[in-house]
């Protein structure tokens, strides 16, 4: 090797790369990449489906043109970078390993195929575009090279544009608006309407129809319940062999609801493709089911097996290529109950055509909402691909929510109703039909795990039935406690006596079941809190070992669990080949209460029954509490979860950040300036000391919050307000204190943009990010419609910028002034204290005492030097 002759260390000497073959990365190309790697000191292995995937622990990198290979999620969990083939060429040209993030095939990095250079555009716009491109997986090049894909420019007459045109390099010359719209949507849209020299978005005639383009992302994934085999599938004995199932054990769930003939045809296709049909969930590679429930679904999901629906199975057969069931939403089983919050919604579609429309109609049905063919005044939402249609005009006149499909897809992916106030859901780029980016949202496995097959639901998994069935008493109790295939909802179980006695009750069986599976729970340091935040993140190695250990344990006891589930279907359970009528501990079904002949058993059973009734009937919610800075919960997730459950049993619901609008009480150790405190204050809650939580938990009863009102006179004097007045004014303001105010934040502001935006939103204002552009975004409708006689109102004449006294922020001040003065308004650059003092006092304050000047920046620098 050349590197060896020169005495240099080979470039890839520490790299062991797994090259994954696919449609875009053929075996011939893979062997060429492998030769290049080996010539430069690297090691590699080539994977071709359906061969078993090699152990990931051997590799430092995975090279693939797509994320559609079986071990992608495992590679991410192990922090092994997945890169596209051009990572190899980029590393060779730089003579150092290129950043793998810029070459990731992850579709969430939607600019990962873009190599961008900038022409004659303002420096502020240039910096913003470069930052956005790099953040979304693209690459910036300062010069025009043969690798560049896009030139961002305002005119086709610039030097770079003329060079590209003269040499016919095939580089697209686009307006900066294209990047702006892509970043707002979080999706890569077509460049055609933005391409110079004649961009469509600048042409006259804005009311002309917007074209609809073909969408391949939803092909074969428009419905979760296909009624028949695709017409492209040949008979099992045809000439085309489907080898995607080779070496795979496939289980067809009973909830599919398909006929015997269709089931037989599918089984033959799988078997002729080298696969096998199994009914043992512990030995399955692929589970095909309809719903996100049942023993087989939970067990296969916890064992990290592939779980998809019939539509996914047909897609595999049609294309004879593996794809993740999480990639397309309707390839994954649906919920029987629908998405919470969607049950009363009536949604209509507009401007989506073809398969994209069918897909969205079925997605609406999967959420549990109603999809209406026509738009009426009783509709709640209109989902549209662009806002240039009669339906959109009517929906706005009727006050309906007009959103794009991203609202629907991301609500389904996150399994939570998303706020329509998010601008990503109400942004419609000019001359673009958003039907072209339908179906690009993936399901999040972490969300599915948390809500549908969490390992914390310990009472959903029974103990080893082989041990349980060796004892007649245990079997009696187990059969009584688990007659149904559907497990009870997770509940906190109380410890019972460890004394072993004959005729043990179901309580003893349940406690044994919990102790048997304590080892299978997710480690406490990995559990999520109720508001979705993690505690201190462990190293990837320990996290991976914990997951592997839990999966291995589940795999070991899976045959026992399957046998147990089978036996519990039999009336009365099975023991020693069956039960006799004369067995004194025989369980009698269809009776409201079972009474034992032994007095001790009777008392024990009654206690158990009372305990169950008590757990099922939780008291109604008397307080909705937002908690901030409660020291006993800091870095103690286990205690926090237990305390929140105990508080709920007392009638206190602890709210997450997103539910602050519902709060009735706010608990804090003192007056704080945390986002939780400031946001909750806008809703006028009763503010109490965190001692209230401590005492309620200690005495295990709901105390009077009036005895724990927060008193912090020192902070009130320092800030210049009182809590009592603030809460009273908040109720009068009704979250409209900042209505009409336009407030901008600099991206690097201490505390983060999202924190300040949440405060402005909670008080009815409008907050946006300022990156140095001199063009003013479109004003909210409430500002445009205000009467001109209100010119004395600062919310109409002034635009505010939150900034810190640092040189980096000062550089952006002239651009902000230029932007605001360009629309005839007054720019005010203020400290963040202006916003915080307004939000905490719940009264408007002038910007005079908070305004920033260049002198402040100079003084701060001198102090730092001193």
From TrEMBL:
Q: Where is the composition biased (Polar residues)?
A: 495-509
Q: Using the UniProt annotation, give all residue ranges assigned to the region (Disordered).
A: 197-238, 454-550, 590-621, 776-797
Q: Which PROSITE patterns match?
A: BRCT
GO BP annotations of the record are: DNA double-strand break attachment to nuclear envelope; double-strand break repair
SMART domains, alphabetically?
A: BRCT (SM00292)
| Start-end of Acidic residues biased regions | 599-608, 784-795
BRCT domain location? 7-105, 105-196, 240-317, 342-425, 644-710
Q: Which InterPro entries match?
A: BRCT_dom, BRCT_dom_sf, CellCycle_DNARepair_Reg
Record-level GO cellular component terms: Cul8-RING ubiquitin ligase complex; nucleus
Query: What's the protein called, per UniProt?
Result: BRCT domain-containing protein
Species whose genome carries this gene: Aspergillus sclerotialis
Q: What is the lineage of its organism?
A: Eukaryota, Fungi, Dikarya, Ascomycota, Pezizomycotina
């Amino acid at each position: 090797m050349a590197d060896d002759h020169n005495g240099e260390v080979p470039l890839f000497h520490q790299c062991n790369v797994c090259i994954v073959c696919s449609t875009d990365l053929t075996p011939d190309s893979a062997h060429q990449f492998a030769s290049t790697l080996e010539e430069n000191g690297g090691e590699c292995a080539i994977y071709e489906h359906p061969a078993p995937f090699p152990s990931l622990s051997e590799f430092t990198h995975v090279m693939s043109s797509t994320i559609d290979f079986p071990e992608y999620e495992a590679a991410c969990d192990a922090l092994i970078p997945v890169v596209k083939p051009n990572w190899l060429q980029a590393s060779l040209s730089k003579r150092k390993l290129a950043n793998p993030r810029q070459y990731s095939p992850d579709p969430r990095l939607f600019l990962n195929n873009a190599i961008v250079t900038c022409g004659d555009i303002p420096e502020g716009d240039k910096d913003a575009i470069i930052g956005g491109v790099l953040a979304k997986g693209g690459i910036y090049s300062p010069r025009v090279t043969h690798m560049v894909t896009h030139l961002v420019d305002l005119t086709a007459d610039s030097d770079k544009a003329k060079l590209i045109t003269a040499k016919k390099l095939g580089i697209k010359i686009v307006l900066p608006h294209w990047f702006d719209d892509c970043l707002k949507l979080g999706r890569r849209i077509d460049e055609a309407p933005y391409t110079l020299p004649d961009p469509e978005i600048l042409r006259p005639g804005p009311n002309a129809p917007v074209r609809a383009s073909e969408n391949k992302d939803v092909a074969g994934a428009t419905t979760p319940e296909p009624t028949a085999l695709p017409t492209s599938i040949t008979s099992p004995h045809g000439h085309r062999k489907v080898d995607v199932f080779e070496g795979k054990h496939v289980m067809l769930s009973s909830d599919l609801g398909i006929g015997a003939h269709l089931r037989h045809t599918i089984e033959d296709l799988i078997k002729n493709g080298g696969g096998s049909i199994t009914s043992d969930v512990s030995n399955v590679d692929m589970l095909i089911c309809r719903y996100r429930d049942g023993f087989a679904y939970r067990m296969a999901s916890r064992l990290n097996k592939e779980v998809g629906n019939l539509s996914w199975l047909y897609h595999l057969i049609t294309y004879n290529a593996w794809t993740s069931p999480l990639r397309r939403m309707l390839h994954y089983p649906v919920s029987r109950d629908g998405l919470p919050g969607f049950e009363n919604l009536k949604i209509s579609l507009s401007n989506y055509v073809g398969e994209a429309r069918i897909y969205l109609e079925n997605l609406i049905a999967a959420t549990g909402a109603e999809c209406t063919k026509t738009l009426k005044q009783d509709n709640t939402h209109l989902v549209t691909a662009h806002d240039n249609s009669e339906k959109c005009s009517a929906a706005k006149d009727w006050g309906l929510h007009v959103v794009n499909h991203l609202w629907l897809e991301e609500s389904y992916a996150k399994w939570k109703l998303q706020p329509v106030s998010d601008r990503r859901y109400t942004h419609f780029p000019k001359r673009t039909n958003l039907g072209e980016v339908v179906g690009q949202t993936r399901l999040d496995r972490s969300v599915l795990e948390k809500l549908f097959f969490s390992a914390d639901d310990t009472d959903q998994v029974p103990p080893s039935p082989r041990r349980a069935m060796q004892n007649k008493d245990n079997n009696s109790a187990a059969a009584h406690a688990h007659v149904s295939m559907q497990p009870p909802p997770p509940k906190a179980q109380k410890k019972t006596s460890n004394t072993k006695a004959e005729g043990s009750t179901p309580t003893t069986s349940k406690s044994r079941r919990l102790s048997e599976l304590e080892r299978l729970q997710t480690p406490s340091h990995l559990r999520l809190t109720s508001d979705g935040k993690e505690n201190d993140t462990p190293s990837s190695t320990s996290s991976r070992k914990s997951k592997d250990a839990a999966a291995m344990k589940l795999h070991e006891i899976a045959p026992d669990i399957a046998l147990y589930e089978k036996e519990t279907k039999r009336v009365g359970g099975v023991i020693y080949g069956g039960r006799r009528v004369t067995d004194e501990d025989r369980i009698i079904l269809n009776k409201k209460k079972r009474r034992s002949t032994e007095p001790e058993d009777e008392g024990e059973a009654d206690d158990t029954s009372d305990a169950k009734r008590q757990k099922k009937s939780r008291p109604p919610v008397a307080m909705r509490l937002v908690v901030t800075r409660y020291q006993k919960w800091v870095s103690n997730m286990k205690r926090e979860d237990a305390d929140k459950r105990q508080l709920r049993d007392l009638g206190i619901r602890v709210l997450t950040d997103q539910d602050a609008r519902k709060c009735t009480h706010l608990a804090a150790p003192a007056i704080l300036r945390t986002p939780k405190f400031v946001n909750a204050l806008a809703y006028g809650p009763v503010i109490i000391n965190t001692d209230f939580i401590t005492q309620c938990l200690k005495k295990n009863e709901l105390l009077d919050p009036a005895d724990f009102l927060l008193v912090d006179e020192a902070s009130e004097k320092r800030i210049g307000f009182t809590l009592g007045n603030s809460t009273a004014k908040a109720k009068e303001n009704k979250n409209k204190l900042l209505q009409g105010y336009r407030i901008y934040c600099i991206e690097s502001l201490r505390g983060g943009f999202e924190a300040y935006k949440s405060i402005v939103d909670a008080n009815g204002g409008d907050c946006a990010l300022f990156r140095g552009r001199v063009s003013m975004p479109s004003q909210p409708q409430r500002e445009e419609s205000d009467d001109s006689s209100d010119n004395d109102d600062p919310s109409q004449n002034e635009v505010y910028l939150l900034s810190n006294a640092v040189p980096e922020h000062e550089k952006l001040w002239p651009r902000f002034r230029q932007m605001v003065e360009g629309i005839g308004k007054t720019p005010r650059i203020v400290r963040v204290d202006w916003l915080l003092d307004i939000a905490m006092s719940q009264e408007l304050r002038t910007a005079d005492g908070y305004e920033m000047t260049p002198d402040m920046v100079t003084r701060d620098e001198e102090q730092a030097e001193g």
